[in-house]
Amino acid sequence: MIPQQASGRISGYLRCSDDRWIAFGHLHSLQWVDVLRAFALAELVDDPRFTTAEVRGNTMSQIRSILQERAATQPSLYWLQRLVEADIPCTLVQDYDMLAQDPQALENSYLYTYEHPRFGPLKAVGPVASFSKTGSVLQGPAPGEPGQHTQAILANAGFTSEEIAHLRANKVVS
Question: Average pLDDT, stretch 154-158?
C-alpha cells in the first residue's frame, strides 16, 4: 500500500487474498473510524497510536502493515463491498485485460484502436480527459526512427517550413 502520509489520511492500495488489488481513501478524519470498521478493525478506534491525523501520520508504517495484513484475509470483492457500505471511496485496481472489457471504460472511449504500420490494428489507452473546445488527441505508434515526426510536430506548433529547415540545417532538430 502506498498511503498519503502528510495529513494522516490513509489512501492507497492493498493486495487481497485473491491477488487482486483495491484502492481506497478517506477524505477527512471522521471517515478514519469507518475505514477501521470496514476492515473489521474497530478495536483500533481508540488506540492512541491512531486516534488523530497527526499521530496516524507518525505511525503510517504500522497502519500500512495492519491494513495489508487484514486485506490479505479476504478477496477484493469482499473488501470493496464493506468499503462501499461504509461510504469510503474505493475501486478495484484493473489490469489492462480487465480495462479492455470494462463497460464504463469502453463507453468513455478510454481505449481506442489505431493502425500500426508493422502490426496492424492495435488497442491503446486513450486520453484521460476530453475538452469541449479542443477535444482529445489520439496518437498513433511511437516513431520507428528518431525524428520521424519532427516536421509534423513543429508544423503543428506553428513553425513555418523555412523555420523548420533552418532548425534542421543548424542541427537543432533531426
Answer: 92
